[in-house]
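Q: Structure tokens for this one, please.
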Amino acid sequence: MPDNTTNTKVESTPTPVEELYAPSAPNSSLDSDLRGHPRLTRDEVPQTGLLIINADDWGRDHETTDRTLECILRGAVSSVSAMVFMADSERAAAMAQEQRIDAGLHLNLTTPFSATDCPKQLTEHQQRISRYLRRHRFAQVVFHPGLIRSFKYVASAQCEEFRRLYGAAPERLDGHHHMHLSANVLLGGLLPPGTIVRRNFSFLPGEKSWGNRFYRRAGDRILARRHRLTDFFFSLAPLQSPDRLHRIFLLARQFVVEVETHPVKPEEYRFLAGGEIFRWTEGCRIASCYVLKSNGNT
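A: Here is the predicted structure, written as tokens:
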């Protein structure tokens, strides 16, 4: 796995951020469990990390694209995950190229394609996948041999459409409803090797069971064999927990942290476009694009 972390030799007394989220071993996937509470203030943690605020669903419809663009222009969003074969995909791609917006592919296996010219065969294959994945909550974790062809076709078609719209193959991928982490996608090797892929959510204490956390760590280990990952991944919501937000942005002082957002949601839009994000991230670098290593050019 590429060395995407800032891990150094393990000391007998861990650093404060290591106490907050302790990596399991150097150069390996980071443990997604919170191990303690921050003991330093924001100003006392050295700045060596990076905060990536990524907006999902770019191109889904006009409202989603326009609200996201406003947040980007205000410097509150680093990058976007673009949907293809959707109502606003063409316009959004043109805007991304014009504004030089960093875009990755938001692989869509569950929400019906809304573009008027979407191929019928593609729609039918996606419908089969969607019915299966939405049938029960654990469908995502079970490999379905009968859908191998459909998964491969739908994933490949979206990669090719992204290439057509954006002029290059996607270098970064994630999934609508996080279905890029489904068993058929991961075990089928459907994500191009060497690309940046969104890892599983990182969790605070008590948010998930031990079995849930174990499964997610296993998925990240599979991803790390073929792809590049951030150190941690969170959603911006819920915004009602100041302590949670403080811990996330504190982590970004030392690690590369991706925060997923949906500016079409009123609460998240106000937080980003209204400038509240900058008060919370004072002293923390918000990336101007999606990068895994912090450097002087971000």
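A few notes: The chain has ten helices and seven strands. The domain at 16-280 is CATH 3.20.20.370 (TIM Barrel).
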